[in-house]
Amino acid sequence: MTEAPVATQSKCKVLVADDEQVIANTLAIILNRAGFEARAVYSGEDVLKALDSFQPDMLITDVIMTGITGIEAAIATRQRMPQCKVLLFSGQAATAGLLEKARHEGHEFEVLAKPVHPNDLLAKLRG
Q: Cα 20 to chain center, whole Å?
């Protein structure tokens, strides 16, 4: 008689995007230490490139980035991976207009204010 293989629970994969590399790297380190499998990228374009190889369960992205904004990356991520949760964060007032435009186009996102405290972020991810 053979035993059934034990199912291993995979870690929640989180892709963190911020054009401020220190922020992206720090959040990824915090998430990895908290038991997530996190990867940092530094632009909206990098988010789209990472989707095929990393396939995150969650995208955490800054809203204001040069090139593809975090909102544009979030919309593209949801189109390619509808099961991927999205959490935006921003410290800039210009975010409101971009969020309103996305809402008008039928996209709703949760937003955390920068700087985000690691405990608040972890509570959000686990909640």
A: 14
Residue with tokens 């401020």: 20
Of the CA atoms within 13 Å of residue 93, those in its CB half-sphere come to 0
What pTM does this model have?
Answer: 0.82
Domain range list for the chain: 13-126
Q: Is 9 exposed, middle or buried (0-12, 13-18, 19+ CB in 10 A)?
A: exposed
Cα separation, 7 vs 80, in Å, equals 27
What is the CATH number assigned to the segment(s) 13-126? Answer: 3.40.50.2300
What is the biggest distance separating any 2 CA atoms in the chain, rounded to whole angstroms?
64
Q: Write the pLDDT tens digit of every residue in 77-107.
A: 999 999 999 999 887 666 667 777 778 888 8
Taking the CB of residue 119, how many other CB atoms lie within 10 A of it?
Answer: 10
